[in-house]
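This part of the workshop introduces the protein records we will be handling. To make this concrete, we reproduce a full record directly below:
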Amino acid sequence: MSAPALDPVIHAPARLQACAVLSSADEVEFALLRDTLEVSDSVLSKHVKQLEEAGYVKVRKAAIGGRQRTWLALTRAGSKAFAGHVKALQQLAAATVPSGE
C-alpha cells in the first residue's frame, strides 16, 4: 500500500481549515464557516467552489425567513480525501522531528 499523498485541492490553508470544520459536523452554515475561518464571503465562496468542483463538498441552499441560506457538507469523497491528507501531514511531521526530542 502506498503512503498517503498531500491533496493539492485541500492543501491551501483556508480549504484545509474548512474541511476540518466540516469534518466535525453533518452540515455547517456558510456564515458560520466564514466567521470561523475569518475570511470574506468572496474568499470562502472561491474555496468552496474549488472543493465542490473536486467533489469534496456538497452545497445546499434554501430560503428561510425570506433570506437565502447556504449549508455546506463534506461528501464521502471529501471525508476520505481529508482523512488521507491529514494522515500524509502527520507522516510528514513525524519524519521531520529530530530523534531524541
